[in-house]
Design a protein that fits this description.
The chain is mostly helical and 361 residues long. It contains 17 helices and no strands.
Length: 361
Amino acid sequence: MTVTAPVTAPVTAPVTAPARPSGKAVARDPLLDNAKFLAIVLVVSGHLVEELRDVPAAHALYFFVYLFHIPLFIVVSGYLSRNFTFSPGKARKLISGLAVPYVIFEVAYSLPRFFLYGKLEISLLDPYYLTWFLMSLFLWRLSTPVWQQLRHPLVVAVGLCLLSGTSALPDELSMNRTFGLLPFYVLGLMLTPEHLDLLRERRARIAGGAVLAAVLAAAFAVHTIVPTEWIRWRHSNHQIGVDDLTGTLIRLAMLAVGALLVASFLAVTPSRRTWFTGLGAATMYAYLLHGFVVKVAERFHDVLVSPLGVAAMAVLGAVLAALLCTSPVRRAFRWAVEPDVSWAFTRLRRPPRRPQEPAAM
């Protein structure tokens, strides 16, 4: 997640999981933090390998990973956003956890272009590089109360996704990805702890492993046939080169495969606490910071285009993802990823009510 991760989190996560209907907060679910960490490893490794896709195996693995790693972050983000409202506290967290980091990293990722090429192009409405995820997640989370009131929210979200593929939407607000990947966020909103419990069962783990293995084998078979743009969700049907009927069917298939792989990945993810569970609570740091390393690695493309180079970048991605989630990195970059902007807020202003005041149109 290109991203992106993916993840506040591809990827944002509060200190505690959403409260159950009783209103009592529950402890973080290790399953979700484990899944987020493993997914951010795939995101970082995928970005490091992206420029090495001239190696056939790298292209196949890239295709397989991009089928589900960002959908996974989006589903988890939706699940953790189930209790989002427009209350003052959550609105402030939305601004400090997504909007402010978006501005900071939109500027930060634009600076290398200025120093290397003398070009400074900053457009806050047109996300650059992996900042698109923050923009889209901000918009998805804002829309949460709407989805929670619809009778069939997932059907509506899928319809919007399919319709968006028929139009060449502008890049502003990351509209193609925001609409295209919307069903995964709404799917996360619809999930319950009971759904996750089903994925912890032994038969679910066996089925999940079989599905992942089968789709990986299929990816090696079709990765040269299917255009890569389908797994990036950046363009309309016509921009990719197909008619709307064909594009709609392909989008439906991508949504189904993505959802199936997300469920399968969650099923094989350890549900107990592991050495990397704590790191999974800080995947936003790895997501936002790893892009600078990727940009440096791209300059060594010619040296790394080989099976050995691909393996080295994949291992580097795993190490880098873990390192960027550690406490020292979090302390050093908290000002950018989780900035304290409490000074910018005041008490919620409510207009005084007057008797016999006409209702708003």
